[in-house]
Write a structure and sequence with these properties.
It is a single chain. Helix content is 35%, strand content 25%. With 307 residues, it is an alpha+beta fold. The strands form five sheets. Strands 2-1-3-6 form a four-stranded antiparallel beta sheet, with no helix packed on it. Helix 4 packs across helix 5, helix 6 (215-229) packs antiparallel against helix 9 (278-284) and helix 7 (239-246) crosses helix 8 (250-262). The radius of gyration is 20 Å and the shape is globular.
């Protein structure tokens, strides 16, 4: 367990009777003589809709809960966690907690971007959309990264469609303070460039996988990636949905899923999939899963030679 890196904590000194903000990383060293109040949403209100982007439900106002906020390590956004403490302090006022349903479009292809999105428990799917309306997934983003980071800072236009592939919490941040941090911090420049290169590596590996590997291998890779982000929970996906994001026909998905179920690797029923034998699933998948996973694990430690 560790404290969330996406929020600060409000502490009150018993001796001084005053409220002060203390960064979550310092909680362990500062528990003595303090009691904490975690900032959580008391109710939700709508945020004005942006052009070609989904309407969001923002957490507001804030409710103080008399407890120390702790969450499992896997549920904090790792890219945000790699920011310097000073950078997190400065962008904190520009962050909003959002929670979107499965299938919600975060931004359409060609849509205007003014924010970056940092998944904490959700997964976002990046889809390439063709003129005839067909689409295929080229990458997905979980708590290891962010959507819209470079598009929002430069072109302001999303090349592909971004949708919610796994429900869960996410942080939405105005791009302007992120621009300032990027321009003024060598650490942030290395971090952002490292993440952009890693996301590109996933896109490149996905292109090769889609072209050269079987539907069964690709399905195994996709299920393993989602299983990592869902922390072992059941996956609520229909064959039709999987066929759409993988760019194949439904029959191919059904045959691949049946083969995996017959081997005792997964079970599925009425849109619910469960990984039964993860080790066996890793044996059936192609090398693309381990290649992309290893690259993301190295992403948050950019080399000293990085620009």
């Amino acid at each position: 367990m560790r404290r969330s890196t996406a929020f600060e904590f409000l502490f009150k000194s018993k001796n001084e009777g005053q409220w002060t903000f203390i960064d979550g990383w310092d909680v362990a060293e500062k528990q003595t003589g303090f009691w904490a109040n975690c900032l959580l949403p008391a109710q939700h209100k709508a945020v004005p809709e942006q052009k070609n982007c989904a309407p969001f439900k923002a957490a507001a106002p804030l409710l103080r809960i008399n407890m120390l906020m702790e969450i499992p390590d896997g549920h904090a956004n790792q890219l945000l966690g790699a920011f310097t403490k000073e950078a997190r302090d400065r962008i904190m006022p520009h962050m909003t907690a959002v929670d979107l349903k499965l299938g919600t479009t975060v931004c359409e292809a060609g849509g205007l971007l003014t924010h970056a999105y940092f998944p904490q428990g959700c997964v976002l799917s990046l889809l390439t959309v063709l003129e005839n309306g067909s689409e295929i997934e080229c990458a997905n983003i979980g708590r290891e990264g962010a959507f819209g980071l470079f598009s929002a800072m430069y072109s302001r236009v999303s090349f592909g469609r971004c949708t919610v592939q796994l429900e869960g919490p996410m942080i939405r941040c105005d791009i302007r303070p992120l621009q300032v941090e990027f321009q003024n911090s060598a650490h942030m420049q290395k971090l952002f460039v490292s993440y952009a290169e890693t996301l590109l590596a996933q896109v490149m590996q996905t292109v090769a996988c889609n072209s050269l590997h079987s539907v069964k291998e690709r399905l195994c890779r996709w299920l393993l990636m989602m299983h990592d982000r869902a922390d072992g929970a059941d996956l609520t996906y229909t064959h039709e949905f999987l066929a759409r994001v993988m760019g194949v026909n439904r029959t191919s998905i059904t045959l691949a899923a049946q083969a995996l179920q017959n081997k005792g690797l997964i079970s599925y029923r009425r849109g619910m999939m469960q990984v039964v034998d993860r080790f066996g699933l890793e044996e059936e998948t192609c090398e693309c899963y381990s290649v992309v996973k290893a690259r993301f694990e190295a992403c948050l430690n950019p080399p000293s030679t990085a620009v």
